[in-house]
Write a structure and sequence with these properties.
The structure is a homodimer. The first copy, chain A, is α+β, with helices and mostly antiparallel strands. In chain A, 43% of the residues lie in helices and 17% in strands. In chain A, strands 1, 2, 3, 4, 5, 6, 7, 8 and 9 form a nine-stranded antiparallel beta sheet that branches.
Chain lengths: 538, 538
């Protein structure tokens, strides 16, 4: 209760900065344009590139203590005449699955009841999802029971899956073996990433090239009619993920229209208060998710600015400018009159770490969002519209330095317990609240604190690499990148994962690793950084 | 081994009757016409009548020791917002199922995994098919797991089911309830029985009318693109079932073309020896089953003769005459030179009773088939073609009286152990091997023998009624009919069953009653007999 009351008074405090005054006309503009934004998003719905793939063969899965999740591919072959076999398509793909059934020498005198399990990893196809409860829906586990009345024939499963492996279980096999056989399997991979646009990267070594390839595949399989966070789960556009995907996309597939479509979707689906919400769905028709993450909303303007810089599409930036500006009113309402963020009724994400104190990282993100909005205004010749909030930048920097900086230890702390986290240092560095030697110091000092809260997800790892780079520590950034993403590669990743905890192969934010997404766009950092670092400085 | 050798020599013995000589030209005729027969069957593929049905409500199922299979309908209502509910469509139907899903106030943020169980009976929807092993495929149990990615939307399940009840299990319900709701269910009932052709029956009382109605519904739901034995299982055309369906159909829906189509299917799909096999499938394209039941094949000519009599379609009878005649060669090859049947390598069915000795009943069926073929020849002016086999009629009657008639007890016995069964008396009476008082005696005497093998299936029960009637015992026939089929009606049958053992509600030929067919055409006798008995003698 108290929390909400605090939020309300903080909102009023923002009004005291005079921010609302200059934003009045903005709401009218947004409301006028909003229906058009959704139409534009619809007009930008991409045609998907389709590729037909055949399995490279069948694989047996064997236990192996040294391998990822204690499983590895054992014997390989081409035997689809057993009661239980696993097809290997040789690569990760997002798409569809079909197969043909051939009649045997005797007529099939009963329906076939087949079970198919689709897996991005070996564990998913051999594991039992019902063994361990998960906080998420059981239905994210990709398995289907298919009853087939008539053969011969071709069966196309109706849903889209994300997979490399397909396990086929034929419960009636003993009776059925003279009565039918499989006559070919195929997959149709779909993506809105056009490989023709992909520039050849320049890499320092084979390891870097390999990480780039895995990241490209990750990005490709998440690029559908919108940027999805993961094609297995949630298959949703998330603003925080979008920003990282868009940045990687500019360096690789350069599908500017897909970013444009996502910016329009989020703007068109903003809520009744014109808040750009955090997530949305594209099917059966575009609709808003029910999440509102403060630190994601704070990045909308930055994502629009980066789109403008990469594509040169000023018309879109002009069109969406009012809603980018509007987000300041929302994201700054929990900043108090001294320029300090304390708490928000909104979901403060930063990272999947329930013990993380969010104050300092959110202070950094909000400041970063404010500064990027001002940059965007500058680019669009709208500096006048943000004049009222410009003094807030210095105020927030000062508040951060006064309230959150531990001068003795040369690092930022967060919350009443003065928690030390990498998240705090990362976002303070990225926001420019700290620069030069202090920036280097806080990143490196915090990393040495024994109980420092480290980045948990590849999402925050991405900003960790970025912050090191921004602080002038590119060698460390590169080393950290190669170590973390290289850790997934060493474990056999075809695409990069939603979560990776080097010391726990079975880590899952949801209580069951089988429900994890193993192709997750927020993990596509290598192709972004490695290609940028190889390119001449811009 | 010995059995097969015997069969071979029996075949040669038939050659000794000179039967082959007169059939030589027949094989050539059959081979010339066979492709055309399949084309004619295809041209006769019927348009199905379609009716959309809504559920009458939801039902709770409660245990009740007095009810069929110890289950009855308890509370009724209309609540589809629970995690597990049962829809009642109020009648049995063969057809399709669809439903609509409506979005809730919050977006659905995971796929829905729904389970649907279709049941002809209450036991099927509340039972667990995996609890008891069955000799048949688990897939005959009609359940589907359906994963749904997007709502709102309409979902049409792709397969055809036979059901009155549909259970819907919503495993994610607790999380899902604010996120979706069902927005209507419907079924599309399909049949090739046109109710417009149905003449009003005249019945002695309400009980008879009720049995007629249940039988009509049984017949209706088995009339699809061909006469199916059961729309749940096997969904196949079986020659033995066809004959009973055709006879009932002439008294009711009068779809002569459907019988014609089935006669052409069986003829067109006869094997390389021109044997009319026992069963066939219509999808994905017409093909032969792998069963060869001697007593079914022996009834092909009779089925054709009855079609000719009912429809007056002489052209079809002429067209199919060669293959009807040909079956004599096949069915009589296991009759020895004295006119006695002993054993056959073919499947001798007669009834689902593994302890039944088949000698006498098969002797009766084969003799019946022979006589009906001669009748058909007579009708078509082809008596010359059967002249060589006509003496065999008396030979077989004599063999039956000499080897199988127990003059002391006035009944037929069968096999080396001189088994007394109703099946023996039934087929001897129907074949005319015994008439007058002897016919009455054998039927009634056998029924009194303590360990007599009684009819097990409604299929043989049908011939029991027929034999009583033929023997001039119509009152007993009527009483037996009302008692047996009335027993199913009392137990709440919507359609008549594949199997009914009054003292065992859980009887199944397959080890699990959940796999039984509860709408089975060979059980449609009431509408045949009751309507014939009411009509003026023909």
């Amino acid at each position: 209760m108290k929390w909400w009351l605090f939020a309300l008074s903080a909102g009023l405090a923002v009004a005291g900065f005079g921010v609302e005054l200059s934003f009045d006309g903005v709401d009218r503009q947004i409301n006028e344009r909003k229906p058009g934004w959704l139409s534009k998003a619809e007009a930008l719905r991409p045609t998907l590139y389709r590729e037909t793939l055949k399995p490279v063969g069948t694989v047996k899965v064997v236990e192996d203590a040294q391998s990822f999740q204690r499983l590895k591919i054992g014997e390989t072959g081409n035997d689809t005449a057993t009661a239980d076999f696993i097809l290997d398509f040789g690569r990760h793909l997002t798409g569809y699955f079909r197969f043909k059934l051939k009649a045997g020498s005797n007529p099939l005198d009963f329906p076939l009841r087949l079970r198919f399990v689709f897996g991005e990893t070996l564990a998913e196809v051999v594991g039992n999802p019902d063994e361990k409860p998960t906080g998420l829906s059981r239905a994210w586990f990709q398995d289907e029971v298919v009853n087939i009345d008539f053969i011969p024939g071709e069966v196309a499963l109706p849903r889209r899956y994300a997979f490399r492996y397909v396990r086929c279980v034929v419960p009636e096999f003993n009776r059925a073996k003279q009565k039918f056989s499989f006559d070919g399997f195929s997959a149709e991979a779909v993506t809105s990433a056009n490989p023709i646009n992909l520039a050849e990267g320049r890499f320092g070594n084979e390891e870097e090239r390999r990480l780039d390839t895995i990241a490209l595949n990750t990005l490709r399989d998440c690029m559908q009619t919108m940027f999805e966070d993961g094609p297995k789960r949630d298959r949703r556009l998330w603003l925080g993920d979008l920003r990282l995907q868009a940045l990687a996309n500019y360096e690789t597939y350069r599908n500017f229209n897909l970013v444009k479509r996502c910016l329009y979707l989020l703007a068109g689906l903003s809520d009744q208060d014109n808040m750009v919400r955090t997530d949305c769905y594209d099917q059966p028709s575009p609709h808003r998710g029910d999440c509102a993450i403060l630190d994601y909303t704070a990045l909308y303007a930055s994502t629009l600015l980066e789109y403008l810089e990469a594509s040169g599409d000023r018309a879109t930036a002009e069109d969406l400018w009012p809603i980018a500006l509007k987000q300041l009113q929302i994201t700054l309402r929990d900043v108090d009159e001294n320029g300090l963020f304390k708490k928000s009724p909104m979901w403060c994400f930063i990272d999947w770490d329930s013990k993380l104190d969010r104050q300092a990282p959110e202070q950094g993100v909000l400041l970063y969002g404010l500064k990027r909005t001002i940059e965007l205004a500058d680019k669009l010749g709208r500096r006048d519209q943000v004049a009222a909030v410009e003094p807030l930048v210095q105020k927030m920097v000062t508040a951060a330095r006064e309230s959150l900086w531990d001068a003795e230890r040369k690092l930022f702390v967060s919350g009443p317990d003065r928690q030390v986290s990498m998240a705090s240092q990362i976002w303070m560095v990225l926001s420019g609240a700290v620069t030069g030697q202090d920036a280097k110091d806080c990143l490196l000092n915090a990393a040495k604190v024994p109980d420092v809260r480290k980045p948990f997800t590849p999402y925050l790892r991405n900003y960790w690499i970025e912050a090191l780079d921004v602080a002038g520590l590119r060698d460390t950034a590169r080393k950290e990148l190669l170590e973390y993403w290289g850790g997934m590669a060493k474990r056999g990743a075809d695409t990069f994962w939603e979560g990776f905890v080097p010391e726990d192969d079975f880590f899952s934010p949801y209580g069951n690793h089988l429900i994890n997404s193993y192709c997750h766009a927020w993990s596509c950092a290598p192709c972004y950084f490695l290609r940028r670092w190889a390119a001449p400085a811009r």
